[in-house]
From TrEMBL:
SUPFAM superfamilies: P-loop containing nucleoside triphosphate hydrolases (SSF52540). This is GTP-binding protein. InterPro entries: CobW/HypB/UreG_nucleotide-bd (IPR003495), P-loop_NTPase (IPR027417), Zinc-reg_GTPase_activator (IPR051316). Residues 4-174 form the CobW/HypB/UreG nucleotide-binding domain. Residues 339-373 are annotated as: Disordered.
Amino acid sequence: MVHVVLLSGFLGAGKTTTMLAAGRAFTAQGKNVAVITNDQAADLVDTTLAKNELDDVAEISGGCFCCRFENLEAMIKQLIDERGAEVIIAEAVGSCTDLQATVVRPLRKLYGDVLTVAPVTTIVDPSRLRAMIGDESDLGYLFAKQLAEGDVIALNKSDVHGSSLRAIGKELGAAFPHARVLSYSAATTEGLDALMAAWDEPATADIDLEVDYDRYAAAEAALAWLNHTVELGASDAPFSPASWAERALAEVSADCARSGYLVGHAKVSVESPAGLVKLSLTEAGKPVQTDRTAPGTVLIATATLNLRVNCEPAALDELVRRAAEAAGHEVGAVARSTNGASFQPSYPRPTHRIPAGASFPRESPGHSHRLLT
């Protein structure tokens, strides 16, 4: 049986870091591991990073797993048939919810004889939790639904928040008694074994989440989404890709803080002859985090920026243009944008939505059961 692990959680919670850490751990156990990244658009920083860490990496873009369920089926089949995957870790879009009804139940009911689906894990950044709990906005509504449907609520960044997570865990356990609540650090892997062990246990409850899809759609549309490519060239002498990336995200951080924009996440990767650089930002006005760096200077490089910011798309485009140019001036590089304009996600329309306890015909009309052939 192939084991599918589905990771949920708001933007910037650390899903990718968790996915890669777990992927390495499963590989060390001798298991053949594949991962699937997911986004509303192509050109993901996370996919680039994953390909530098693991052998089998796939990407589903153009919508969340629930709205691209047939793509998810096909990708799982390909990873099993062509790559021999034994464990598949799938990281859902950070603005997605209702996964129990739209992804987990369809997979279990259609393919329960060839797949096991782990309890849904909602990964949480404790800093974001403090800011979002009690928030009556549409984004707050979405965040609360992600918590409510988690079989496992995993408080990430224990290396940063330490003993304070004990009290937070107790509060979450009282608010969501159906869920296993645990803390860990994806960065240091402390507590990762306990999280992975939870994926082998049965789900504690068949959660039937009530979701107002108008509010869900409004929450996604509150964020401008940008996947953007920038070609960098030396203006005179070789430049440092790591320095450019750090300065570009620092400019984004400061600009968003001045404008009062909420940052869902901001990520940048730079590929060059020096190697791969990857940095991230999860809160306006805060320092940039270096996830992977490569010392050295180069004459050319290609940068990919993924930003999810609570502003109008045109404002985000202008913000990124200023940041790229300002960083270029500081490090001696010319920045030329080659593609990518900000957009707002369309209304979520899942392929399936199965309530708890509902029957699901094995020969659903128009369904080929591709995993079974």
